[in-house]
From TrEMBL:
Belongs to the glutamine synthetase family. Residues 58-413 form the GS catalytic domain. It is an enzyme of class 6 (ligase). It comes from Tepidimonas fonticaldi. PROSITE patterns: GS_CATALYTIC. Its EC number is 6.3.1.18. InterPro entries: Gln_synth/guanido_kin_cat_dom, Gln_synth_cat_dom. Pfam families: Gln-synt_C. The gene is atdA1. One of its GO terms (molecular function) is glutamine synthetase activity. This is Gamma-glutamylanilide synthase. GO terms for biological process: glutamine biosynthetic process. Keywords: Ligase.
């Protein structure tokens, strides 16, 4: 093998000659695939042959962020709320015909499993039951902490909710769930996609809402929970519901919201979700139990379940990067003692700073957030900037952008 051209891998130390890497599996992660009982699954991390860790390992980036958080006496617990779409395959000829082997290939022809537009209605559950049963059996068979599964509002859209775990386990669970569900449903003749906005008219966008709370490592208590409101604070003050640490963490998430958007919404397709009156965020703000705000603070004084729900993410996001960006942004707020502005009561009518409206704008925002880049590591940011910058170039250069999204995202995510 010729390897990369001279200097072609200068920014990828260790890969200059297309060198081998070693995947070291974790035996404790072993699972038998419920739909393939003769096949097992193991989580592994990458190392170079000389024993050095591969630097661009997103799981290792999250581990480093958690170590930095632990050095301040905190852990992070997360709950996952994941929306996605399931379709019945009508014809997968383009996927299996060798004459259509161009990569990425066209997705299969599909039809919906339910028509949608009745929020949490039992009317569509019978139509979606066969597919949802596969999802449930897969998640439970793999030992994932599935809490609920339901038909969502959009046509052919569903939602899975998972119980709270530590942050690293939550990220691992998301990787396993997403891959396993796609494989198990494919075996049964369905196409599952975690693409934010599938390429059909009148669909509903899918989000990945990340619930997070700080944990006091010394006591195990929720470090975001406040016993009583701070003196002389208004109901819109974060200290009326969050501890000082929680308010600082919240302020850090707000301060770096634009810069970390590319880690939470990493595809060109995902930015179509940020629109008014769609239960999706549009600007950088927080609210008390407000689903239109980017950050929804849930709970109250004395409530051990007090937490922050970040609603910016899309279900195709790399979970390790998503969580690592949250931690580094929140840590910056903790270390600098930042305080958030008052809560919003009108998330779609305010004049708050808007979220990026495209992947290109999100990459520009990351370039401008030098503090976040310093925390995540300039090499990591340059790596993401290059990969996602090339994706944005291919998207903007595409003659048919819907065809690009169909092949790039709907086929593969």
């Amino acid at each position: 093998m010729a390897g990369f051209p001279a200097r072609g891998a200068a920014d990828l130390p260790g890969f200059g000659q297309a060198n081998n890497v070693v995947l070291l599996p974790d035996p404790a992660s072993f699972r038998v695939l419920p739909w393939r009982p003769s096949t097992g699954w193991l989580r592994a991390q990458a190392w170079f042959a000389d024993g050095r860790p591969v630097p661009f390992d997103s799981r290792r980036l999250l581990q480093r962020a958690l170590q930095r958080l632990a050095a301040r006496g905190y852990g992070l617990r997360c709950g996952l709320e994941v929306e996605f779409h399931i379709y019945r395959i009508v014809d997968d000829g383009a996927q299996t015909d060798p004459r259509c082997a161009a990569w990425p290939g066209e997705p299969p022809a599909v039809r919906m499993i339910h028509p949608g537009y009745q929020l949490l209605s039992e009317a569509w559950l019978d139509q979606a039951d066969a597919a949802l049963r596969i999802v449930r059996q897969t998640a439970q068979g793999l030992g994932l902490p599935l809490s609920s599964l339901e038909a969502e509002m959009g046509p052919s859209q569903v939602e899975a909710v998972f119980d709270v775990t530590d942050a690293l386990t939550a990220a691992d669970n998301m990787v396993l769930f997403r891959n396993a569900v796609r494989m198990a449903l494919r075996e049964a003749g369905y196409h599952a996609t975690f693409m934010c906005r599938p390429p059909f008219a009148q669909i509903m966008s899918s989000g990945w809402h990340l619930h997070q709370s700080l944990v006091d490592l010394a006591t195990g208590a929720n470090a975001m929970c406040r016993a009583a409101p701070a003196p002389d604070c208004a109901p819109s003050d974060a200290r009326s519901v969050l501890s000082d640490a929680g308010a600082h963490y919240l302020a850090g998430l707000l301060a770096h919201a634009r810069g970390m958007a590319v880690f939470c919404t990493p595809t060109a397709n995902g930015y179509g979700r940020f629109r008014p009156h769609a239960l999706a965020p549009q600007s950088v703000q927080w609210g008390r139990d407000n689903r239109g705000a980017m950050l929804r603070v849930i709970g109250g004084c004395g409530d051990a379940a007090t937490r922050i729900e970040n609603r910016i993410g899309e279900p195709a996001a790399n979970p390790y990067l998503y969580l690592a960006a949250q931690i580094e942004a929140g840590l910056d707020g903790l270390e600098r003692g930042l305080m958030p502005p008052p809560a919003t009561e009108d998330p779609y009518g305010s004049t708050a700073t808007p979220l990026p409206t495209s992947l290109g704008e999100a990459l520009d925002a990351l370039d401008q957030d030098t503090a976040l880049a310093e925390r995540l590591g300039h090499d990591w940011v340059a790596y993401i900037r290059q990969i996602k910058g090339l994706e944005w170039q291919r998207y903007t250069a595409a003659e048919d952008r819907e065809a690009f999204e169909r092949r790039e995202y709907f086929s593969r995510l």
